[in-house]
Amino acid sequence: MTRLNVKPTRMELNNLKARLKTAVRGHKLLKDKRDELMRRFIESVRENNQLRQKVESALVGYLQDFVMAKTLESDLMVKEIFAVPMREVNLHVETENIMSVRVPKMYAHIDNPHTDDEGDVVYSYVASNSQMDETIESMSDLLHDLLRLAEIEKSCQLMADEIEKTRRRVNGLEYATIPDLKETIYYIEMKLEEAERASLVRMMKVK
Question: Which of 96, 102, 105 is nearest to 159 (CA)?
Fold first, then answer.
């Protein structure tokens, strides 16, 4: 604890008491914010781990199936099939406020400009094979999970940064600011009591 360099007067005492009251209230609010952020962070980390395992497992399986299907076609034919993207993805990003942390919210709209009237993809099914078609369709279904995964991971990163900042502020108040204010208030109160006793002794001597 470090005593602040202030004059031991009643005005300073009142000011320090007001600062102490504000610091204690701020400390409580910051602790509540830190605890709520930690709760949200842990929930997001759990969801992130589950979703990452699901996406990675699906991608590994789909890529293995695609490689196997690709071996049945020539490289030139595969490049020709996928020369033009089958779908257009429009991504809209908003932000959500979580305990003063602005985390991203992503929304994707998928258009199929290269489809026929019945909604079927118009690239050549003759040039490809059924295993390749099934794998491509399955991989396209992962888009929303991939966006959600990116959203959660960025949110976790932002919340982790904010938790660390809040933790430093809480510790600063708890172990530095509040003890210093209490020590200074105690010192001023002792000084004022001492001055009152000295004044009382002088008055008694005068009488």
Answer: 102
